[in-house]
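quick one, 580 residues, struct below
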Amino acid sequence: VTHQDIPFDKLVERTQPTRDRHTPPLIQTVFTGGNVTGIADRPVPLHTATMRPMSIVPGTAKFDLTVHAEVGTDTVGVFFSYACDLYEPGTVADLADSYRALVAAVLADPDRPLSTVEAVTEAQRERLTAVSTGRRPSTGRAARRPEAADGPDRVGGRATEVGRPAAGTNGRWAGDLGCVPRLVADAARRHPDVTAIVDGAGALTYRELDEWSNHLAHHLLRHGARPDHPVAVSLPPGAPAITAMLAVLKAGAAYLPIDPTAPTARRHHLITHSGVTILITDDPENTDTPPGVVALAPRRLDAPAPAAPRVDIHPEQLAYVIHTSGSTGTPKGVMVAHHALANLVRWHLDTYPSGPGEHHGQIASLGFDAAVWEIWPALVSGATLHVADPADRLDPAALHDWMQRRGLTVAFVPTPIAEAILRLPTPATTSLRTLLTGGDALTTRPSARTPYALVNHYGPTEAAVVATAGAVHPDGVHRPDLGTPIDGARVHLLDADLRLVPPGAPGELCIAGEGLARGYLGRPGQTAERFLPDPYGPPGSRLYRTGDLCRLRTDGTLEFLGRTDEQIAINGYRIEPGEI
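---
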């Protein structure tokens, strides 16, 4: 090759690249090779001296990463030199192991296409499988409250690890993994006079919540509510909306939340394209209601009913349908079954123990899947759910003040709002123990004086809200990670051909397990495109391709890198440019 012997220093001198003291000029990664056959195994006499090959550690990396291969008589030694401020030793060790696995695979089958080789050693495969099945590394500790003096790290006020059962539960939440409407009814029987929901209009006890939802459930059945068919709930956030959603579940149907303030065209589309025949709304006389849809007003019902309908609910039946932004320009409805919702509730109460006397926040829009996570674990446990005023939801200072006045102990706040709240002063006497966040890439860490634990979460609507969780410590050199899989979730990092990528390499985050949605309502083509057979799970299992790029860090946590497409997220909402 012409000019291949020109020294690199001379090349830099001639090209005169823009200098940056943090980055080597022109190139940052170098692969070199040298043939040392004949001198690698014996000393060479040189006049009155003897030359003997020696391995020299330079002490300073000339490039960010240099890989040098030395070819001996019957061996090849590969040496890695790297900048310590860019690479961790474990990362480079994984890179070396992956390179060795790649070379071994090629030598074993030289005619095999390189694109089909999986550069993963058996030891690495064991680590990747541990992450994929939700088993957590021992380093995944929860954040400690600054004022705690008893030693263990804390999540939800008890010694625990993120995603693990709390101490004293014998490895499992005390409730059965049953359907959510039955679990809420059980909570009402245990705590009938405890306040269930507080909104701007007043408060509702568990007895009142149970009886009013029973009455509406009977009413829904008389109007044709049935399993696997969505019933639209278009009500502002508050006790009536939550009561209506519970009634839909008790009737055996699936609720479909619709923001009553959304544009008429969007609301009309969600109703007509979802097969909805029943709409629960404040204004049943509204002329915008599509033909053939029965509109009901929950507050106009006559009297509460003490007994729920006798309806059998199978774990595979739909619990709810929530729409996300669609790449084709129209929203797509994600169908989530009861078993996925129950798994979310069980994991949450294992991780963040709750019950009467606990105060949860309901801050997310009902059309945002985070509202599912806010509402049902609180009502299953017998805690009190406080509904934020819509005017406060996007104002960090107003929301922070509201959380303090209400005495919230656990609250979810979308990432941008949470980052703003972290910068606000919080009294050390606050009742808030755990601030949950998610929906966007988290870049802010709590300070050492923050009097509550911050836990970052990740999960698409297609995986029942939460798939991974990780406590965020005040100290740390990296951007906060996505944590590790929650109980019941399996996570794989795969390439375009659904092969495992080596630790540290970018891969598409694919999710499987109990929380996986059934698919998209009325869109079999898009369902088949995103929900695929899981090559690493039990026979017949599926996975969901998220389109998110991540890598596995040496400590077993997941680092978010970006998207494989143009999708964006704003305040937790996933938005496709096509819909805009």
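The chain is about 25% helix and 25% strand.
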